[in-house]
Amino acid sequence: MGASPIALSLSLVIEEGFSIEDVSRVMRSVGETCLEAEVPVITGDTKVVERGGVDSLIVNTSGIGKRSEPVSWG
């Protein structure tokens, strides 16, 4: 709120054995949403952990934006 989005980072933590089809479905959804919002993913990371290490999949994002209006911090 109060900023125009510029870019996102996207990281995945994937449990060993998680379906590649499900990863593809998640990434298609990310791509479609980014196109709709006109915000690119510019960096990211993927880790695969042992079975039971996470509950299937963790998606972590972080965004950067440009402030829309000057803010008075005082």
Summarize the structure.
The protein is of the alpha+beta class and 74 residues long. It contains one helix and three strands. Helix content is 24%, strand content 45%.
What features would you describe in this structure?
It is built from one helix and three strands, in the order βαββ. With 74 residues, the chain is α+β, with helices and mostly antiparallel strands. A three-stranded mixed beta sheet has the order 2-1-3, with no helix packed on it. 24% of the residues lie in helices and 45% in strands. It has one domain (3-66): PurM-like, N-terminal domain (60s Ribosomal Protein L30, Chain: A, 2-Layer Sandwich).
Find the CATH superfamily: PurM-like, N-terminal domain
| Class by SSE composition | alpha+beta
CATH architecture: 2-Layer Sandwich
Question: Roughly what fraction of the amino acids lie in strands?
Answer: 35-45%
Order of helices and strands: EHEE
What's the number of structural domains? Answer: 1
CATH class: Alpha Beta
List keywords for this structure.
single chain; 74 residues; alpha+beta; 60s Ribosomal Protein L30, Chain: A; 3-stranded mixed sheet; 1 helix; elongated
